[in-house]
Structure formats: structure tokens, C-alpha cells
Amino acid sequence: MTQVAPNSSPPGNCKLAIPKKGRLYEKVVEMLKGAGIEFRREARLDVALCKGLPITLVFLPAKDIAKFAGDGDIDAGITGWDVIKESMVTVERVMDLGFGKCKLCVQAPAVKEITDVETLSGKRIATSFPDTTKEFFKPIDEKLGKTTNVFFVSGSVEAACGLGLADAVVDLVETGTTMRAAGLEVVHDILETEAMLIANPNSTHKDLVDLIKRRIDGYITATKYCMLVYNVSSELLSEAIRITPGKRSPTVTNLDCGNVKSVQSLVLTKEVSEKMDALHSMGATDILVLDIANSRIIFSVCTPTIRRDNPGCGQGKEDDHYHYLHIIDTSKLKTRQIAMSLLRSSILIPRSGRSKCSIADHLRNFSSKLDDVSKLVSGLTPEDVQANPQIAEFLKVNFEDDSDGIDDGFVIPGEILEKFGVTDSDFPVEKTSQKEYGAPKLDRGLGTELQQSLNIRTLHTYLREEEGSNACRRLRYDNVIPGLLYGSDPTKGISSNTTESKTMLKTPWPELQRELDRFHRRFESRVYDLTIYENESDKEGTVHRVIPRNVQRHPVQGSIYCANFLRYFPGKPLKIPIVHINTEESPALKRDGFIIPVSKHIECVVEDGVAIPDAIELECTGVVLKEVLRMDRLIFPDGVRPTSRVDPEKFVVGPVVGGRGSQTDGDGEEGGAEEAAQ
Description:
Oligomer: single chain
């Protein structure tokens, strides 16, 4: 018997590499065990044998897995897309795993308020992804005639700006907590990444790689779905099936206790609570939810669209378009109705080739071959056709097919559909353009030129009818944030004392996330033109000028729970944040000193027609240790002034403090004591 070294792989085994530590390790191990790929890793060993499978797990740093897979040292591996792109190797992208999602972003200090990535061309960029960063900045440098200095940092990349080593960084952003703690903000997204299964294109273990893919795919599907079991009367069965249609159709079983059916249906885990509520409301009983430990379910992604025949589009290619056939009662439907129903089908039907007889004749003849003469069976797949000799023979006789057998169902020629008045315009093809990483982001909050000149951005929201904590919780589950519009607006004759001044809203989370990613906490100090739509079909909406106010956040995660808006009009007091400028000209601040923020905002009034400033600048030139900064150092733009409630003599931005390293010449202990006493 051949002896195998403890830290090596037996000859002939498929080598699968996974991260040995880090943010992906625990999720990958949990996924493999759930998929039935069990192993035992001995202490201090980076190799483990799988139980019952000729697979060897190799534990490697995540950044090395892609390179080893491309060089053929391993057959397959699990790592992130960011690492794969940085490795500059050729690997087969087997499947995306759906976790470890984050973005590789260009980040700059928030105080610099950099919004255009081109301003960083020629600057110093610190990153752990130097090749990807150089590739991103290359077209920008060529356009501007500059050379960006990209240098490698193995860890703690976000600290490079604070230490003065770099002007910006390129690093991964998942939640943004570390980025914001370091005083950075996102300037531009380079790419989106997530964990994925990759393989060596020339691997000799294709069958085992496919086995790993099937098992992982089955586990991922099992975590997304659950089995819903309930009892319902025969009279309510059709309504219950409409609520829980399942994958192809639910399983219905007769019970001995009278006119009652037992139904089992596959439902999405995230929708199970709503499904249970709907079933209970319509009269179902004994409703149970069963977890699925694992599965082997294939979900075909097909859309009810229509497209002209493309001679260059062969079977099996990515640009084939399919239709589905729903249950059709051919004894009652007219020819046009049959054709229209055929477009909303659930039998896989590629549109190519030529037919020998009319579509209506095909359907009627086809239905005569089935057990139920009046109906076509919903959910029939090519495998089902192959398994039924009658159906396969009928299709082979009545439809032209270049292949030897019936592999992809039967054909719907475009000219036949035209006879029924069905054209491409009835079912337009939705063209999804592939995202090009590095392309400039479209800022959907800019608004019109007038709004931009006033520094007012736009938001979109909808009227809300749902009330109560449970209803709001369901909205948040669907990525919709509840809120309220309130306050007076003399320009529109709205008084805050009336009930009409309060309007319940629900705002899509992407709208708020776009502004939070750009402005972070300053989001609550900005003015927006809020367009309120009655529903999704409303294209006009009403516009209100507002300020985010009383925005409620999760105490730990920091996510928004409730987004309220206060009406704004010219002359209304507005709290504007204070930012520091020319800190490098301060002998105290550039030598470890800092300002204790007593006031982070100042209440101002902005005249009508004047651009609302993002912030009020605090001039720090010549600031020394223990100096108390007051309003006289604030720079107010034209048309912006503090309100009468702000006392210039008492308003304090904050004192300057720091260690002894920040003391300037003449700031001795005696002088410091006298200033402190004063």
C-alpha cells in the first residue's frame, strides 16, 4: 500500500484550494460541509483529504489561489474576483458563490472632498492591488499626460493617507466602517467582487470539478428555499396554488378526512412569512415550514421575450432566446389566443427553423397525444420529451430539426407568429448591457442645471399607505425605508399646524445609499428636491424642497431605519458643517495637535438664488497650541450669514490641544498655564 506524506496529496486526487484564513475561510468551510464535502484538517497542516471523495483540500493564502490554478498546480479553487484579476492569469470561472461581496474603490480623505478621480492622476496611490490599480489609471494618465505613482502596501492600506504616505488609496470596501473611521470616502468604484469557484482550463479532473459545482450549487439553492406544507379545501385549492406555485407545480395529495388536500410547495425563504400570512388569510390550515438541508434543483433562467430568427444564432449559444408554454385549454381558445399564450409558456421553445403546418394544428395534434386531451402539460422540459416516445415521435414527424433527435422542444417560426398579429414590439427584447468596470459612474442625484447651480440634489420617493411597526418592518425587509414629510412652507401656503402638512413616505434604499456613500453624515445637512410619486406608474410626481431631519439609525450597524424630511424654503435656518482648511499652515496642527470639536455645525441663513455651501470653512493658518477658535476664523460665502441666534462672542469651534510635540516656540509651561487660567 502506497504511503502518503501527511502534508501531500495522493496521486490522482483532484486538488481544491480554499483560503486558509481571512474573511472567506469560515464561510467556505461552512459551505463545503453543507454540500457534503467533508474533511478533517489536522493541526498545522495545510492539506486535508475529503471523506469518500478523491478530492484533496489545499489551504492557501487567498491571493495565491488564482495563480496556482492558472499555473496548473491545483485543479480548482475558491477565492475572490479581485484576487483573480490582480493575478493576471487565465482561469475558468466555474460559478459565483454569492458571498464575500465588496467593491474595490479609489478612496481619498473626506476633508479634501474629491469627487473626480481624474484629479488623482499623477498623485501617490497606496494599494494592495498594484496591477489592477495601474490598469485603471493607465487610460486616465494617457489622457492627461501624467504618471500616477502606484506603490504596494501589504496591509493597513487605509492608514497611508493619515500618515502622509499617499494622496489616496485603492482598497476593498464592504461596509465602509473602516474607511469612514480613517476619514476616507469613496471617489470611484473600480470593480465589484465576490467569492467564486474557479478551475484550471487544462485540468484532467473535469468530472470532479463538475461534481464540486453541483454539490455547492445544491447547497446554495437549499439555503435560499424551504418547503411549505399546508392543508386546504378543494374549493380553495386553485387560490392556494396561485400563492405557492412552486418550481414547476406544487405536490397535491388527497387526505382521507373529506374534501381536503395536502399541498407541498417550494418557496423562497425570504418570502415564506408573507406566503404563510396569505395562506392563513385565505383559509389554509396546518401550515408548516420545513428546512432543506441540500438539493439537486436546476432553475432555468428564461424570459417571456420575443426575437426574430437569427441564422447565426445556433442552438446552445448564449444569445438564444426561449419562450415558455403555460397550461392551455385548446378546446376553448382561438388561434390568436393560443399563439399569445404560447409566448407566456413554460415549455422550453427556441424560435428557429421552419414548421410544416400551422401552430394551431400543432397544438391540437400535440394535445391529442397526451392523457388529458384538453390541456397541454405545464413544465414540460426537453428531458421529459425524450422520456415520452409518443411526444418525441410527434415532434420529430411534425417539425423540422437539423439534429438527429428532439433536443430542444419544438419550433415557433417568426412568420407564423406574424400571422397572429404578434410582432417584436409586442414583446421587446430587454438588452442588458454588461457593466464595464472603470467607466465613469452616472450620478442620478445631480438634477437640472438650475438645481446644480444652487447645489441642490434630487431624491425620489413614494407615498406610503402602510402604518404600524410591523408594516414598516416589512418595508425595510424589501429595501424600502419608511419616513415622513413634515413642516411648513410659506411659499406654497403649507402650515405645520394642519394635518395635511404631514405626508407618509417610503423611500427606496438605493436612493438613500447613493447620498450616504457620497456625503456620509453630511447627508443630514444638505438640501434636496424630493419628488414624491403616488405609485410606480406615476411619472410626474410633486416636488418638495426638503432637508433630511430626525434620521433614525440602527444603534450598532448604523443603517437607516427611518428617513424623515423637513420642508425647506429660502431664509429658513440651516445647519451647515464646519471643515478645516490650511491645517498644514498651522505650527500646532502639523505637529500632532488637533482641534477638539465643540461645534461641528453652525446655523446659517442662505439668501434666495445663492448656492447652498457644502460646508463653512475654518481658516487654520497660524493656529497655535491652546488657542480657542471662534467665529472670526470662519469664512462665509456671499449670501450666507449666521442666524441671529448665533452669538459671535460666545460661539466656539473648539480649542487646539496636543502633546508636547505640537508646542511651538514660546509655548512654554508658564505661558500655557496663564492661557489655561484665562
